[in-house]
Amino acid sequence: MAEEKLQRLEVVTPQERVYSQDIRFVVLPGAEGELGVLPEHAPLVSALKTGLVRVQNEGNTLKIAVSGGFAEVRNSKVTVLANAAEREDQINIERAKAAKERAEQRLAAKDPDIDLIRAEAALKRALNRLRATGQA
Ligand code: ATP
């Protein structure tokens, strides 16, 4: 059987290396839509939105929640650089639920002093973390 082609995926934040493995296929939450990347993909740089990095390896899929950032693809290496990123096993579900409720309350209060964009971004991050863990 032909040797399967793999590519390196690295997901890093200012705090830690969240993921570093040779993988088969990854889907990135590109700012302009999902980006599926196989080994030997053409070089690219893309902004990412808050969303899920889906890693496919030998039949299983791992989800990594990222809060924006950038991806670079080059020489069968995919690098994701994000302010915050958590593998599904790192996510504290109660914390994400609490963040979701706080953001929803801020948005519902219609207080002219609240920063709507910030509250919406916080809600997106919380929902994304819940989605990564199958809670939303
Ligand atoms: P919170 O209001 O709960 O702090 P947040 O969306 O404002 O949520 P971020 O600013 O995106 O948090 O992240 C700050 C740090 O906390 C990052 O290192 C991020 O990975 C981590 N983090 C945030 N929420 C969670 C969570 N639910 N589980 C695990 N780590 C989390």
TrEMBL record:
Question: Which residue range or ranges hold the ATP synthase F1 complex delta/epsilon subunit N-terminal domain?
Answer: 8-85
In the record, the note on similarity to other proteins reads: Belongs to the ATPase epsilon chain family.
Q: What is the lineage of its organism?
A: Bacteria, Bacillati, Bacillota, Clostridia, Eubacteriales
Q: What does this protein do?
A: Produces ATP from ADP in the presence of a proton gradient across the membrane.
**Iron is among the record's keywords:** no
Which GO molecular function terms does the record list?
A: ATP binding; proton-transporting ATP synthase activity, rotational mechanism
Q: State the species of origin.
A: Sporotomaculum syntrophicum
* Bilayer topology term: Peripheral membrane protein
Family annotation (SUPFAM superfamilies)? Epsilon subunit of F1F0-ATP synthase C-terminal domain (SSF46604), Epsilon subunit of F1F0-ATP synthase N-terminal domain (SSF51344)
Subcellular location per the Swiss-Prot or TrEMBL entry? Cell membrane
User: What is this protein called in UniProt?
Assistant: ATP synthase epsilon chain
Write down the InterPro entries for this protein, in alphabetical order. Answer: ATP_F1_dsu/esu_C_sf, ATP_synth_F1_dsu/esu, ATP_synth_F1_dsu/esu_N, ATP_synth_F1_esu_C, ATPsynth_dsu/esu_N
Q: Which UniProt keywords are present, listed alphabetically?
A: ATP synthesis, Cell membrane, CF(1), Hydrogen ion transport, Ion transport, Membrane, Transport
Query: In what residue span(s) does the ATP synthase epsilon subunit C-terminal domain sit?
Result: 89-133
Subunit and partners? F-type ATPases have 2 components, CF(1) - the catalytic core - and CF(0) - the membrane proton channel. CF(1) has five subunits: alpha(3), beta(3), gamma(1), delta(1), epsilon(1). CF(0) has three main subunits: a, b and c.
Which cellular component terms (GO) are annotated to the entry? plasma membrane; proton-transporting ATP synthase complex
